[in-house]
Automatic annotation (TrEMBL):
Keywords: Metal-binding, Zinc, Zinc-finger. GO terms for molecular function: DNA binding; DNA-directed RNA polymerase activity; zinc ion binding. Residues 43-95 form the Zinc finger CHC2-type domain. Pfam families: Zn_ribbon_DnaG. This is CHC2 zinc finger domain-containing protein. One of its GO terms (biological process) is DNA replication, synthesis of primer. It comes from the Bacteria. It comes from Pelotomaculum isophthalicicum JI.
């Protein structure tokens, strides 16, 4: 847990200033869902605010910017965008997570900050579970696709064609599903994972 010095807390009751005293990289590590990779004096990761195939969000020592969707800001902006919070709610959430005491905080403020922290934790855990499931399905369907492609490549006779020709219909469907899981929007990925066809393939 990172704590600010007592003199700073005594001299400044502004919650935004207190939060901004935190090393930004620690805030980024706590809230950004992707892995941060160190590159020189900065860090990069995939942006959570758009479908980001390649890391386009850059974390600096005092803030962040995505060069894909152009979102940018400081620690409060980051948490507010991630969890759909107002700036003050985001600042209080950060303060609660990092153990920063707020001299002017009421019991209601503290309760709201704790609730926001619990909700954010639940969202992160849910997103992590979804990612695990998505990866499992992708690996399973990739294996099926390779098997289908291999069988189609081995067709040599009319008998083979009659027996395996139906796979020509399945192959493009598999290609489409895999492409959605690689690069599609979250809503499209959810639809794919919930489809009866994908469930049947994964349960074989």
């Amino acid at each position: 847990m990172i704590k600010l010095s007592v003199p700073i807390l005594q001299q400044n009751n502004d919650i935004f200033q207190l939060v901004k005293e935190l090393p930004f990289i620690e805030v980024a590590r706590r809230y950004l869902p992707g892995e941060l990779r160190h590159q020189g004096s900065r860090w990069v990761t995939r942006c959570p605010f758009h479908e980001d195939r390649y890391p386009s969000l850059v974390v600096y020592r005092d803030g962040w910017k995505c060069f894909g969707c152009q979102e940018h800001g400081d620690s409060v902006d980051l948490v507010a965008l991630l969890h759909n919070l107002r700036p003050l709610e985001a600042a209080r959430m950060i303060a609660a997570d990092f153990g920063i005491p707020l001299p002017d905080a009421t019991q209601e403020d503290i309760a709201q900050a704790r609730q926001a922290t619990l909700l954010a934790k639940a969202r992160r855990e849910l997103k992590a579970c979804f990612k695990v499931k998505e990866n499992e399905v992708y690996q399973r369907l990739s294996s099926i696709y390779r098997a289908v492609d291999s069988k189609l490549a081995g067709i040599q006779t009319e008998e083979d064609l009659e027996r395996l020709g139906g796979l020509y219909h399945i192959e493009p469907i598999l290609e489409h599903v895999l492409e959605v899981l690689r690069t599609g929007k979250m809503t499209d990925k959810v639809a794919v994972l919930k489809s009866d066809r994908v469930k049947r393939w994964c349960n074989k």
